[in-house]
User: Fold this.
Amino acid sequence: MIIDAHAHLWKTQKGRVDGRDVFSVGNGKSNFGGEIRQMMPPFMTDGENTAERFIANMDYAGVSGAFITQEEIDGNQDFYLLSSKEKYPNRLKICSLYEENKDFSLEGFDGVKICAGRLPNQDLTKHYKVFEAADKNRKFVSIDLSDGDKQTSSLLEMIRQYPELRIAIGHFGMVTRSGWLEQIKLARNANVRVESGGITWLFNSEFYPYPSAVRAIKEAAQICGMEKLMWGSDYPRTMVEITYKMSFDFILKSAEFSEEEKELFLFENAQKFYAFSNLDECGNIKNMLED
Assistant:
């Protein structure tokens, strides 16, 4: 069984990047702050990145559950994620979006997302109220940090103040950027994890089967232990180059990991961290290219 620890959904993309609007222009493309970018696979012609489409991808690839995170470039998707979880309660875990100087909600959500690298005030101790609220309500924090060690000290202070709070660091610490291992070291703390959402984006120039990504996962495991690492796809943005299955298939087919390590990375760690239960194993669907 497999759990995706980093995926996105939206009904309507209406976000911001560096103070500029981000919105769909059709055929999977978005206006990204004034530049047209292929945000999704081109067959997503209507610009909607829906739960139904994602569940179809999960079913075909054999992914039983997923955590749906958020990003400011997509706009606040709180309402849509609540409706998606209502429709697929056993398969999706969701988070609300924390935005600086705005109200945020935890009701009905499993956790809260902090796009820390996009915060005007990058000192995370100045945002202690969101950590405090998540800790008090027994929710988790999903957080994407600025590159390298720019925010690791202030996050460490929050970890020390709220030692029982579950925290998942995204994008594998921005693994291709200088100082990424400082983010990985934070997972030495008991309730901190690192998820690999976006790792195929960060190693896209190398492409499948991503040997450098495999080496990076092994290196991180030596620092904090494989039991602290989780697989994530960063769906749908990474799907502009690869299929959903390819985003984890390079792990399954790698001889660098033991079967126990694959089980931890692809399933067990996320199951425990996000508290998934009642998951069903997806059956294998034979495609038209197979004998």
Q: What stands out?
A: Residues 259-274 form the longest helix (16 residues).
